[in-house]
């Protein structure tokens, strides 16, 4: 058996061919399930007109529940792509196949959780989507807030906005953590969920993506806009998992940029 050879240059897949696209299931959910969800859950939606219909857009939202990643794309006026844990795509058997097809059809991009290279790979995936004039949804806090407070933003969203020139639409969600608390298998019928889309932010006045100060100031502007929409109590800290060893405790204690 001979070693496989890399494809010739003209046979290599282009970046656009590798990007996820909203499939049939996405539009079925939008036009079939979304009206039913509106009828049952009666979501309160504000500011849909603030989302540009074309061009690169980042929807930067607070994060309270697993269903946030379904609520935002379902009620946004254009297809929205988002990151999903790679474990949703790695399963085996029929269940694994169904999970993979479901999240892919909804425009999800698999990503390995963690810092370092995993974080950089996630940023690169989102950058390519923005450069193709897509809309993406990201959570500057990094992960769900388990206590309902709004945590400090990490600078990855600002980095993408400054690097690509994408507008940032702040999003404030309320009630999703009560509709589907952590550990719940299915959303509850109540309470009423609120989704607020704020006015687009142009962050270019802060400077370039290579400037740490620009990234921090842009991130703070994004989080201030999210806070104005969500009305959450501010945590004034990063939402980080408890350190598992002395090295992680030292890393979290030292000043460093959270992507």
Automatic annotation (TrEMBL):
Gene Ontology terms for molecular function: 1-acylglycerol-3-phosphate O-acyltransferase activity
Pfam families in UniProt: Acyltransferase (PF01553)
Coiled coil residues, start to end: none
CDD domains membership: LPLAT_AGPAT-like
Assigned GO CC terms: plasma membrane
Key word Transferase present: yes
Domain Phospholipid/glycerol acyltransferase: 57-176
Statement: the UniProt record of this protein carries the keyword Acyltransferase: yes
Domain of life: Bacteria
UniProt EC number: 2.3.1.51
Classification via SUPFAM superfamilies: Glycerol-3-phosphate (1)-acyltransferase (SSF69593)
Keywords noted in UniProt: Acyltransferase, Transferase
GO biological process assignments: phosphatidic acid biosynthetic process
Protein's recorded name: 1-acyl-sn-glycerol-3-phosphate acyltransferase
């Amino acid at each position: 058996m001979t070693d496989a050879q890399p494809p010739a240059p003209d046979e290599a897949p282009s970046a656009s061919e590798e990007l996820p696209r909203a499939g049939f299931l996405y539009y079925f959910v939008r036009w079939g399930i979304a009206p039913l969800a509106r009828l049952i859950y009666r979501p309160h939606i504000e500011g849909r007109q603030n989302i540009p219909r074309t061009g690169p857009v980042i929807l930067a939202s607070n994060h309270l529940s697993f269903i946030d990643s379904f609520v935002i794309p379902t009620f946004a006026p254009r297809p929205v792509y988002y990151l999903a844990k790679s474990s949703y795509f790695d399963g085996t058997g029929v269940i694994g196949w169904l999970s993979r097809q479901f999240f892919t059809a909804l425009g999800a991009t698999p990503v390995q959780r963690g810092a370092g290279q995993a974080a950089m790979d996630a940023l690169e995936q989102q950058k390519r989507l923005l450069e193709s004039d897509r809309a993406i949804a990201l959570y500057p806090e990094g992960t769900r807030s388990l206590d309902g407070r709004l945590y400090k933003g990490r600078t990855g969203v600002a980095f993408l906005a400054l690097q690509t020139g994408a507008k940032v639409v702040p999003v404030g969600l309320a009630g999703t953590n009560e509709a589907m608390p952590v550990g719940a298998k299915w959303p509850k019928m109540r309470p009423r969920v609120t989704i607020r889309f704020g006015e687009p932010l142009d962050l270019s006045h802060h400077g370039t993506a290579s400037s740490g100060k620009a990234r921090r100031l842009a991130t703070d502007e994004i989080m201030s806009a999210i806070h104005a929409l969500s009305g959450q109590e501010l945590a004034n800290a990063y939402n980080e998992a408890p350190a598992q060893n002395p090295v992680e405790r030292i890393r979290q204690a030292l000043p460093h940029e959270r992507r």
